[in-house]
Amino acid sequence: MTPLTSFPKQDIRVVLFEGISQRAVEVFHDAGYRQVELLPKSLTGDELIGKVSGAHIIGIRSRTQVTAEVIAHARKLITIGCFCIGTNQVDLEAAQLAGIPVFNAPYSNTRSVAELVVAEAIMLMRGIPQKNAECHRGGWSKSAAGSHEVRGKTLGIIGYGHIGTQVGVLAEALGMHVLFHDIEAKLSLGNARAAASLDDLLERSDVVTLHVPETPATRMMFGAAQIARMKSGAHLINASRGTVVDIDALAAALESGHIGGAAVDVFPVEPKGNGEPFESPLTRFDNVILTPHVGGSTLEAQDNIGAEVAAKLVRYSDNGSTLSAVNFPEVTLPEHAGSHRILHIHRNVPGVLSRINELFSREGVNINGQFLRTDAKVGYVVMDIASTPEITSRLRAALNAIEGTLRTRVLY
Ligand SMILES: NC(=O)C1=CN([C@@H]2O[C@H](COP(=O)(O)OP(=O)(O)OC[C@H]3O[C@@H](n4cnc5c(N)ncnc54)[C@H](O)[C@@H]3O)[C@@H](O)[C@H]2O)C=CC1
Ligand SMILES: O=C(O)C(=O)COP(=O)(O)O
């Protein structure tokens, strides 16, 4: 039912999945949100749908799959926060067409990933994972065979974005040569050089590290053919997404010895939460560093992410601003104290704005401020008006009746 007033903040239900930092809860509390539920793990299937369908705001990390089906049941949901970088776990288009902006934290954990990757490059080049495993079993084999400094060796970075560039800078500080491959033209930092092609990078690198997002083009982009191109004995690091590397092809190359070692942080299927079993064809190799998707899991990164994404969600909920949303037209809005703010999200088809303006002029309501942004599929128009709850409520009902309307919200 259309509420007569702006939806009361104390009734807004926030559900945060996957052990999101307490910092996020503090941000919501400080902003006057009282119903914040923090869950330690991801949910799936009916459990997820049940939880999401009662929520106005959800926060997730990389594991929770917010599919079109989940969104179809999320009648109350106004916004989604990905407390991480990747947004591949959300059906962004389905969210957009349901009028739900999605936010993420594009920078806060990049340094943490870069540090881990550089440390792993050193460990792999020294053969430490297998030496460590042997010592744990009571063995001792002190030898320099197969152990190398990283200084003077070549690191190949696939995906030279926020993380890839930082990995390159740190690796150069250790005296490594840095090559990169990206689908976009990228400014090289330091002495890093763009490889002539992916194959060129693979043929020249002692360590190859992947920093691409999950997209249709990167899914299984690293398979037997790419591994075969790598130098014999070279090392592979994957802290991007588990779907990027053909894990069976990697296992076969480790088995044959063509790959000298690997560090893998992300897997095609990951456990839903701590304490759940982890299975991988890579567990049998001592020369593989396996980590439970912790590239971005430092206290520093999680604290910053908690604050950053929660602030974006609060701002959208309180004020309607969609600045930095990943699936939505971006509108930055001023404060609206003293006026009623009406948010109208619609399919981007001709005539919607003129019908909205006709409605306001017919009702004799003066618009103090109007903000509009569109993208290929969706239009987002925000109107600040001097009004009463009764008039705003009537206007909202009329706006909902305009063809192409996806959702309206009222803030005051
Ligand atoms: N293991 C972990 O805990 C973490 C993993 N990640 C993963 O790392 C990914 C990268 O993060 P950022 O560097 O911040 O992203 P970014 O968007 O700044 O950089 C990604 C780069 O990959 C390039 N790229 C895209 N498709 C490509 C392709 N087919 N071939 C070559 N290059 C391609 C892009 O042009 C861009 O330069 C994230 O999307 C996420 O999946 C991010 C943070 C933590
Ligand atoms: O930021 C990302 O994309 C990551 O992969 C980190 O994911 P997480 O928050 O650790 O589940």
UniProtKB/TrEMBL annotation:
Catalytic activity: (2R)-3-phosphoglycerate + NAD(+) = 3-phosphooxypyruvate + NADH + H(+); (R)-2-hydroxyglutarate + NAD(+) = 2-oxoglutarate + NADH + H(+)
Pathway in which this enzyme or protein is active: Amino-acid biosynthesis; L-serine biosynthesis; L-serine from 3-phospho-D-glycerate: step 1/3
Summary of the function given for this chain in its UniProt record: Catalyzes the reversible oxidation of 3-phospho-D-glycerate to 3-phosphonooxypyruvate, the first step of the phosphorylated L-serine biosynthesis pathway. Also catalyzes the reversible oxidation of 2-hydroxyglutarate to 2-oxoglutarate.
Entry-linked PANTHER family: D-ISOMER SPECIFIC 2-HYDROXYACID DEHYDROGENASE FAMILY PROTEIN (AFU_ORTHOLOGUE AFUA_6G10090)
GO biological process entries: L-serine biosynthetic process
EC number: 1.1.1.399, 1.1.1.95
Encoding gene (name): serA
Domain ACT: residue ranges: 341-412
Enzyme superclass (EC): oxidoreductase
This protein's name: D-3-phosphoglycerate dehydrogenase
Alphabetic keyword roster: Amino-acid biosynthesis, NAD, Oxidoreductase, Serine biosynthesis
GO function terms (MF aspect): (S)-2-hydroxyglutarate dehydrogenase activity; NAD binding; phosphoglycerate dehydrogenase activity
Organism expressing this protein natively: Luteimonas wenzhouensis
Similarity comment: Belongs to the D-isomer specific 2-hydroxyacid dehydrogenase family.
PROSITE patterns: ACT, D_2_HYDROXYACID_DH_1, D_2_HYDROXYACID_DH_2
InterPro entries (alphabetical): ACT-like_dom_sf (IPR045865), ACT_dom (IPR002912), AHAS_small-like_ACT (IPR054480), D-2-hydroxyacid_DH (IPR050857), D-isomer_2_OHA_DH_cat_dom (IPR006139), D-isomer_DH_CS (IPR029753), D-isomer_DH_CS1 (IPR029752), D-isomer_DH_NAD-bd (IPR006140)
